[in-house]
Amino acid sequence: MNQTQFAKPIESHLERFNRYFARQMRSSVPLLNLVVRYLLRSRGKQLRPMLVFLSAGAAGGITDRTYVGAAMVELLHTATLIHDDVVDQAPLRRGLASINAVWKNKVAVLVGDFLLARGLLLAVEHNEYDFLRATADAVRRMSEGELLQVQNFRKRRTDESMYLRIVGDKTASLITTCCRIGAISAGADTAVQELLGTFGEKVGIAFQIRDDVLDYTSRTAILGKPIGHDIREGKITLPLLRAIANATANEAKEIRQLVRSSSVRNGSVERVISFVEQHGGITSAMDTACTLVEDAIALIEQLPVSEYRTMLIQLARYTIERNK
Amino acid sequence: MNQTQFAKPIESHLERFNRYFARQMRSSVPLLNLVVRYLLRSRGKQLRPMLVFLSAGAAGGITDRTYVGAAMVELLHTATLIHDDVVDQAPLRRGLASINAVWKNKVAVLVGDFLLARGLLLAVEHNEYDFLRATADAVRRMSEGELLQVQNFRKRRTDESMYLRIVGDKTASLITTCCRIGAISAGADTAVQELLGTFGEKVGIAFQIRDDVLDYTSRTAILGKPIGHDIREGKITLPLLRAIANATANEAKEIRQLVRSSSVRNGSVERVISFVEQHGGITSAMDTACTLVEDAIALIEQLPVSEYRTMLIQLARYTIERNK
């Protein structure tokens, strides 16, 4: 399954959207345009704009408002990725050098702020206050989720409920917003907005669980960034929590100490990875992700049959089947 | 003249505002509340909330909306200061360790994002879309202005028109927004909003010129941060541009080379400071700031006489008379 396949019913929309999106990022500052051109060369999976278009289609029909909503969330998403890379001192993003690596933190922080402002301004310009309402809260949740993660990293005592809260805030909040904005842009009623919002929340959590699993199971060449990154950072994610739950008390203690140690060496990273595999951490985490996706699918099966709904279902499955 | 003096007619409002503002910053994330408490201990001059309240008073009267507007701009201003300190790797802010110095860049970027989102959300919650319109554009201009400065720093060829554009974008844009939001919150008509907006733009540019002058003339103990910082950073500001214009071609060339050199040493910083003083850079820059302030005052003298208007005039003069 290829991610472009479920873009089929919205292909011409996405093409038009890409031109529209590039226009929204233009500025009168040459340095900014240089960074933006670099960003546009390394676009990601475009999961979020796709979710906006498919949700709009499934909720009644794509409109001009859908373009504004999709551009808005993609601007905010791009902004948060740039800030995330500063926060994580990440050298790579999508297989290319990150903005902070090429232009330093200074430019990365400012470009992130510009794109954040540009996204919100776009909604203001189009009087899309319901979009703003759905989005400003997601931006708050995203920064709170990241801060919660930093705090837990310091105390190094993440448990599953904390993990789920962090994942909900930092990843699912914007995906929920995408689905909700899609529904709003189609003129759907509140019940449909809620339904698609909940679909997005569940898919969003599943998406992040898959990301955290890939950090254990993928390879650098496929992922476009080094694997074992979370462990090196001391981040305790679902696969590890589940493996710890399955292990003996002594093994669990040893592994927690290994992850707690301020500098996790390469040998230790391999040790943690094989511990997680051996104690079924991957399988158990993926089971949870699958349940979330199936729940999400059951929800939107309440919507009328359409090619958009079909593609939303495929996209939901893709979030947990993908290898990068 | 003390800055608390012109707060007289709005004293009780400012007291109530401080409690209101602290409430807006609350979060469910303990680490965030810790940072917020630290921030609240080291509040600045509160120039921006004061401008909102005084503008509202001068434009017809302070309302509940004025509180929302003042909190919004103060949240955004606080956010941008935190990001600025990351960008500039500043160790101090208002005489205390900066957030990036205490909690590292990671936390500083995220807290800035949180406060930015919180400010915009506040307006959304109160359906204050005109505030958003005035503000989202200021956030865009602030990041563009900073990026323009970074870009010019790289090319090291700032001239006066570029300097004024950067100052307008990075400092005056939010001050304009404060005055405009004050007028909107008072229910003033568009002409009064424009008039107060232009007042703010002029005062804002004068304020930044004074800041740039203080970087040459103040002392670390008064300013709460090291002087000569701009020169060390390779930032060419108005006092230096004016001194270069007054000097012989040879002297100017020598100084430009000194500032261009990638690491400006302590001896060189003193050399540049005395060059600027000797060639009337300080006086000339301050002349421009004074003219801007007098123009700004002439504008608001078109408004009805009130204690608020009087205090706005005093506040305008204070921006260029202050020593820190």
Query: Could you tell me the number of beta strands of chain A?
Result: 2
How many H/I helical runs of chain A? 15
Largest interface: A-B, 42 and 42 residues
**Assembly level:** homodimer
CATH class of chain A: Mainly Alpha
Distance between the termini of chain A: 13 Å
Strands ordered across the widest β-sheet of chain A: 1-2
Q: How much helical structure, as a percent, in the residues of chain A?
A: over 70%
CATH architecture name of chain A: Orthogonal Bundle
Domain unit count of chain A: 1
Q: Major sheet of chain A, described briefly?
A: 2 strands, antiparallel
The geometry of chain A reads as globular
**Sheet/helix structural class of chain A:** mainly alpha
Q: Summarize model confidence as the mean pLDDT of chain A.
A: 88
Query: From the alpha-carbon coordinates, what is the Rg of chain A to the nearest angstrom?
Result: 20 Å
In what range is the share of β-strand residues of chain A?
Answer: under 5%
Q: Name the CATH superfamily assignment of chain A.
A: Farnesyl Diphosphate Synthase
Write the H/E string of chain A, N to C. HHHHEEHHHHHHHHHHH
CATH fold name of chain A: Farnesyl Diphosphate Synthase
Enumerate the spans of chain A where pLDDT stays under 50 for 5 or more consecutive residues: none
Question: Which tags fit this structure?
Answer:
Farnesyl Diphosphate Synthase; homodimer; 15 helices; globular; 324 residues; two-stranded antiparallel sheet; mainly alpha
